[in-house]
Amino acid sequence: MSQQVGFLDSKTPSEIVAISFEFNKVLTTIDTIDSVVISVVSGTDSNVGTMALNAPVKVGTIVTQLVRNGVDGNMYLITCNVTTGSEKYSLAGYLPIVAYK
Questions:
Q1: Integer Cα distance of 79 and 68 in angstroms
Q2: For position 40, which CATH number holds?
Q3: Are 74 and 42 in contact (CB under 8 A)?
Q4: Model's pTM, two decimal places?
Q5: What is the mean pLDDT of residues 62-81?
Q6: Of the candidates 3, 45, 51, 79, which lies 20 to 30 Å from 97 by C-alpha distance?
Q7: How many structural domains is the chain composed of?
Q8: Distance between alpha carbon 6 and the CA centroid of its chain, in Å?
């Protein structure tokens, strides 16, 4: 399982943004999206489970998840887990929330 972690562009609490994970550097196909997990890295958020909007969508080797809400000043980690054959892969990104851009 590979995991690459980077920083995503910040969003405001009121925005809905599409977060895309491109697996094209490690895969030529994705069989299954296992999960997209959002967790709080810094700050507190009792509603972190409401951040993922709808199910993630796969197009080729790209998985896209709509993300909403979040608490101003918090940092979140969004991790996308996929399976191809018997191999599992993960990509992740830190998402900062800012009240104003």
A1: 15
A2: 2.60.40
A3: yes
A4: 0.92
A5: 97
A6: 3
A7: 1
A8: 11
